[in-house]
User: What shape does this take?
Amino acid sequence: MKKSLLLLLLACVSCSTGAWAQQSPTIKSIPEPNAASSPLESDSILVTIILKHQQNKNLPEIKRILEAQGFWDQFPGPDARVVSWTLAMGLGHVIVVKIPPSAVRRINLAIENGAWGAFDSEIYLSYDYKGIWHDSMEKRAEAREDRN
Assistant: This one.
């Protein structure tokens, strides 16, 4: 049940945009779909990162650890585009970034070197399901109209 809820949350998050209210680093946003395609757009992958709050630490402690370990100097990185950054109360940060495949190791090391000790982390390769979902809803509506 918990895993299904998390998967549903990830699906919802990858379809929406958000911001992290507790910290305000400079974040590059992803270009709109109609914008000109860049090399990052044509050869990139989505990565979903979950930074779970360690509940034995308060916010000032977490911020101190992140600063001491240089997290904001490493994450998300110059080659990353933040697709969404959502703070899920009781869970933590759910971040979706678009990166070139060559940056997977770098972003993993940024989490390991900068966020460990402040957060528990999970990292998933992911993909945008919104267009697929939208197409299937249209096909369902057409099929329903054909039956009537």
User: Anything to note?
Assistant: The longest helix spans residues 130-147. The radius of gyration is 17 Å. The helical segments are 2-14, 39-42, 59-68, 71-74, 104-114, 130-147.
